[in-house]
Amino acid sequence: MDKMMRAVEISQPGGPEVLVPVERPVPVPGADDILIRVAFAGVNRPDALQRAGAYKAPPGASDLPGLEAAGEVVAVGAAVSRFSVGDRVCALLPGGGYAEYVTTPAAHALPIPEGLDLRAAACLPETCFTVWSNVVMRGGLTGGERFLVHGGSSGIGTTAIQIAAALGARVFATAGSAEKCAVCEKLGAERAINYREADFVEVLRAEGGADVILDMVGGSYIARNVKALADDGRLVQIAFLESPKAELNFAQVMLRRLTITGSTLRPQSDAAKARIAQALEAEVWPMVKAGRLEPVIDSAFPLERAADAHALMESSRHIGKIVLDVAP
């Protein structure tokens, strides 16, 4: 077993260039943890927020970025019974994914879905945990309802479109180019709206309004989302690419019985994340096995080029997920 590992750390708050390759000691799993030899790690927007100094790691978590990975279990804690050395898993991480080895609670790991390789599996945890917990567990989306996701060509968006379509919802998405809109429709969106050319509020109101909206833009979109909701609709907020502040007429919320909710994943308790993992294995993993949900991968970068991966993510030129190839 190696004592040292390659990793990428945040040298100081800043742009992509502050991500630097280093050597770190291999972490030691706690009683309820597993140690994973990472093959691929997902790159996500919260990683960029952490790099910029705006999203601190929770107490006890690694200061290294990286919230999801796939690889092989190489050690298990004394209280772990589900996984054994040699098992191939993907996992939600409290941090530390930009490294050759990472620890995470065993309850936050899942077996690799049948037929999926490690690169694709590394794209599942962060997006699936986020989408299922917010769209279904929090937003209550069911078959036959109208669902709108903003940023439909992003990692979250491509996952949300496929899960909602698999549930039997009518899916709508926004994206910023004809190419991105075409991808959204290929994945199962009934209509992808180019937000540079059309108003999603008008489109959804013409359809009767959205029953559930998943938004990561915020700012000016918040009031527009409320207008786009059907009566008894639910707006679920998961990020703020524009702004966390908005002026809103709450009389509409009362008169039309709207629900405005949201969440962030990382600060939730280990028990809450374990419940989401159980729901994914029961409800979403069969979608993957049946080919109803397949990660959309834009590109892969070697671990040492994490800065380039972040630059691409922040350019928004990508479609789907960006991953780091960690294996030497």
UniProtKB/TrEMBL annotation:
Pfam families: ADH_N (PF08240), ADH_zinc_N (PF00107). It comes from the Bacteria. Coiled coil: none annotated. Keywords: NADP, Oxidoreductase. The keyword Oxidoreductase applies. Residues 14-324 form the Enoyl reductase (ER) domain. GO terms for molecular function: NADPH binding; oxidoreductase activity, acting on NAD(P)H. InterPro entries: ADH-like_C, ADH-like_N, ER, GroES-like_sf, NAD(P)-bd_dom_sf, Quinone_OxRdtase_PIG3. The keyword Plastid does not apply. CDD domains: p53_inducible_oxidoreductase (cd05276). PANTHER family: OS02G0805600 PROTEIN, QUINONE OXIDOREDUCTASE PIG3-RELATED. NCBIfam families: quinone_pig3 (TIGR02824). This is NAD(P)H-quinone oxidoreductase.
